[in-house]
Amino acid sequence: MQYVKSREDADEIVNDTFMAVWDKQDELVLDQTIKSFLYTIVRNKSLNLLKKRKIEISELDENFEVASQHISPIEILQARETEEAIFELIAKLPPKCQQIFILSRREHLGNKEIASILDIGEKTVENQISIAIKLIRAGLKNQTNHKNNGLKMVIFPWMLAWLMN
Q1: What is the distance in angstroms between the CA of the first residue and the CA of the last residue of the chain?
Q2: What value does the mean pLDDT of the chain take?
Q3: Half-sphere exposure of 157 (CA within 13 A, CB side)
């Protein structure tokens, strides 16, 4: 009860402990008293149960999506403005950087494929994508700081994934 805080779980753990000891009675060699031996088994089973539950809860949290999540018309407008700003910033990138970024993000090509197509090194591709992301981020930050219409920039997860992938 001290560990699991549930009468049913505590009873089940104690029963499992006695069953495990009964099943292995021929193999057991007790160097210590039976009380401390049983206590150790019960404690370990309790901690294992708590660990299992914690893992199940964290997995549930990771996969849980709020079904009632509502996106307001203002957020949609803000997201569209942000998307337009991103496309404008991409258009302002240096030509080679823009080409590499588009091949990576819109065409979903890997760095190796882009390097092969453009006959450049993979490291160059990585550097150009990194430069593009830095310039786009800086441009978005600059636009956010200088917005005077009161609408904030909204970047939805799909937009962020598109930029960062």
Answers
A1: 48
A2: 76
A3: 2
Which CATH number does 73-164 carry? 1.10.10.10
96-113 residue pLDDT tens:
999 999 888 888 888 999
Six token digits for residue 20: 């495990």
Tokens read off for 4? 């699991």
User: In whole angstroms, what separates CA 39 from the centre of its chain?
Assistant: 38
pLDDT, one tens digit per residue, over 45-91 is 888 887 777 755 555 445 444 444 556 677 677 777 878 888 899 99
**CA separation (Å) from 4 to 7, 21, 50, 111?**
8, 21, 7, 50
Q: Is the pLDDT of residue 32 over 90?
A: no
Residue whose C-alpha is closest to residue 9's, from 47, 37, 38: 47
Residue 129 has a CB neighbour count (10 Å cut-off) of 19
Of 136, 133, 134, residue with least CA distance to 153: 136
Phi, psi of 81 (to 5 degrees): -65, -40
- For the chain, which residues make up each domain, given as ranges? 7-63, 73-164
Longest CA span, the chain:
81
Q: What is the pLDDT of residue 68?
A: 41
Residues 6+ apart with CB under 8 A from 135: 89, 92, 93, 97
CA 93 to chain centre: 30
